[in-house]
């Protein structure tokens, strides 16, 4: 994986996250963190959670290795293989959408039981979910198409299509303001169809064709059978992981008072550094590992460098969120219907979530190892105790500690997930485990020293007591980042050179 691929994906993900953040700023301003905003957030997030189960959590992890393996043998059979999978997911997501449409109240009562206590909230949720859920069809098929394009070294379009969704929602919010709930639901559905159309156009440009036939060769039947066995395993595994989010949503609906919205805003802030680095690296790391799986030295070196590179960004993000979380939330969301109480609650959630950032990144990297070895069932094993831990802690703390307790549960469970994955890796792939370094003491110490200088610089800027909160936050971010990067260069941390020169795992 070369840096030009990483930079293309990162720049597009950054654009997506910037437009997504602007969208969320408008969310907070016009929708706030109320019962009605909870209804919309639930309708918005539910199809995306199912997308992660059916698409991101399963297609990319299972499809890419099989596709690359078969592509070298027969292009025509590979296109037939893809076409069959495409039709299968079209049928599955359509059937699921019909079920949710006709059983909406049942779905809400199971996944947001707190909504059933308020008739108006329940009715709004039912109406909005019926509009938004078919988005799952478009976005799942788009994820499948994106995985094909990535496997053919086309990273640009797949990583930028989400900007379409953000742009549509931004325009809708600016036009309809605090009465935009229904219009936003329709904008989500429309943008999903546009994303799918653009990806299909890219297929034509790359001369990748759809082929459907009932005359299948034995090797093709074997690979299709293998795909569906592994996809079921991956769906179960991804489903258990996503169940943690469902659990948080269930208990947040019971907490009430805009809890779902507050958790959403905190989650969106924490998602920026995670998506920009971990997702970008893991998206291009998986094809590299799949192609070089017989050379464990290459794979382990690539993994070790990816881990350090992720920690270079995760560590300062974590410290920054601990020190200036209220400043960040206030600048981003603190206006309109998002009041001071919402700012305090969301910033407290952000502080708690900050501790999960390094764990999420390491967990994402470990997942790629199992997927590249085509051991899809192993992350499932690690996710089961993680889910149980999260469920038990949420149940124990939600009444007394509210959303802060739910955030704490999320942090604890993700760190346990990392420990479980490492243990399984050691037991099941000992040769690879022997070559990896999750905790390189020397490099972590250098990062720690740089973090100290970062913290001191933030405290120094705070002493100036700048009255304008926007200038104050920008100054803290700019000074903190510069001091941190300069410190790493002085300390000669090799991985920092990735930012300033061409880089390849080779």
Protein described:
The protein has 19 helices and no strands. With about 500 residues, it is mainly α. It has one domain. The longest helix has about 50 residues, at about 375-430. The termini are close together. Residues about 500-505 have low confidence and may be disordered.
Brief sketch in words of this structure:
This protein has 506 residues and is mainly α. The chain has 19 helices and no strands.
SSE pattern, N- to C-terminal? HHHHHHHHHHHHHHHHHHH
**Count of distinct strands:** 0
Unreliable residue runs: 501-505
State which percent range the strand residues make up: under 5%
Q: Whole-number average pLDDT? A: 83
What shape does the CA trace take? globular
Share of helical residues: over 70%
- Number of separate helices: 19
Tally the structural domains.
Answer: 1
Distance from N terminus to C terminus (CA atoms, Å) equals 8 Å
Q: Provide the structure class.
A: mainly alpha
The largest β sheet comes out as: none
State Rg: 23 Å
Secondary structure layout:
Blueprint: H1 3-30, H2 35-56, H3 59-71, H4 75-102, H5 104-111, H6 119-132, H7 135-151, H8 156-160, H9 162-176, H10 181-205, H11 218-255, H12 259-291, H13 296-333, H14 340-354, H15 357-372, H16 377-428, H17 430-433, H18 441-462, H19 469-490
Helix pairs in contact: 1-9, 1-12, 2-6, 2-7, 2-11, 2-12, 3-7, 3-11, 3-12, 4-5, 4-7, 6-10, 7-10, 9-10, 11-16, 12-13, 12-14, 12-15, 13-14, 13-15, 13-18, 13-19, 14-16, 15-16, 18-19
């Amino acid at each position: 994986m070369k840096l030009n691929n990483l930079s293309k994906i990162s720049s597009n993900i950054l654009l997506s996250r910037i437009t997504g953040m602007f969208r969320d700023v408008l969310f907070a301003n016009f929708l706030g963190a109320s019962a009605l905003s909870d209804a919309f957030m639930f309708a918005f997030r539910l199809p995306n959670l199912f997308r992660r189960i059916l698409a991101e959590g399963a297609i990319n992890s299972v499809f890419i290795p099989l596709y690359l393996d078969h592509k070298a043998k027969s292009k025509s059979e590979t296109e037939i293989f893809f076409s069959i999978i495409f039709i299968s997911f079209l049928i599955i997501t359509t059937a699921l959408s019909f079920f949710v449409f006709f059983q909406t109240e049942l779905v809400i009562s199971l996944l947001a039981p707190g909504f059933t206590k308020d008739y108006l909230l329940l009715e709004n949720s039912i109406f909005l979910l019926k509009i938004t859920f078919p988005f799952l069809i478009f976005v799942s098929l788009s994820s499948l198409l994106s995985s094909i394009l990535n496997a053919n070294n086309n990273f640009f379009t797949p990583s930028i299509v989400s900007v379409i969704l953000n742009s549509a929602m931004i325009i809708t919010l600016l036009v309809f303001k605090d009465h935009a709930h229904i219009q936003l639901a329709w904008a989500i559905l429309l943008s999903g169809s546009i994303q799918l159309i653009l990806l299909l156009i890219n297929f034509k440009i790359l001369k990748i064709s759809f082929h459907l036939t009932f005359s299948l060769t034995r090797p093709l039947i074997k690979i299709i059978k293998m795909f569906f066995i592994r996809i079921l395993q991956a769906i179960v595994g991804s489903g258990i992981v996503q169940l943690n989010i469902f659990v948080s949503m269930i208990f947040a609906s019971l907490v009430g008072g805009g809890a779902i919205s507050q958790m959403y805003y905190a989650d969106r802030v924490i998602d920026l550094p995670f998506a920009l680095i971990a997702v970008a690296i893991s998206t291009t790391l998986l094809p590299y590992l799949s192609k070089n799986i017989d050379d464990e030295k290459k794979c382990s070196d690539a993994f070790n460098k990816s881990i350090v590179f992720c920690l270079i960004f995760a560590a300062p993000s974590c410290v920054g969120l601990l020190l200036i979380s209220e400043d960040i939330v206030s600048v981003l969301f603190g206006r309109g219907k998002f009041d001071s109480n919402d700012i305090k609650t969301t910033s407290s959630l952000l502080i708690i979530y900050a501790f999960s950032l390094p764990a999420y990144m390491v967990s994402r990297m470990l997942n790629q190892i199992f997927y590249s070895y085509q051991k899809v069932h192993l992350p499932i094993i690690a996710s089961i105790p993680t889910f149980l831990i999260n469920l038990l802690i949420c149940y124990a703390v939600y009444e007394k500690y509210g959303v802060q307790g739910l955030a704490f549960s999320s942090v604890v469970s993700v760190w346990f997930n990392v420990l479980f994955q490492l243990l399984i890796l050691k037991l099941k792939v000992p040769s690879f485990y022997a070559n990896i370094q999750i905790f390189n003491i020397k490099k972590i110490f250098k990062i720690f020293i740089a973090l100290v200088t970062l913290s001191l610089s933030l405290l120094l800027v705070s002493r100036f007591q700048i009255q304008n909160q926007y200038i104050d936050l920008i100054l803290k971010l700019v000074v903190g980042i510069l001091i941190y990067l300069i410190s790493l260069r002085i300390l000669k941390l090799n991985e920092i050179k990735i930012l300033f020169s061409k880089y390849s795992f080779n």
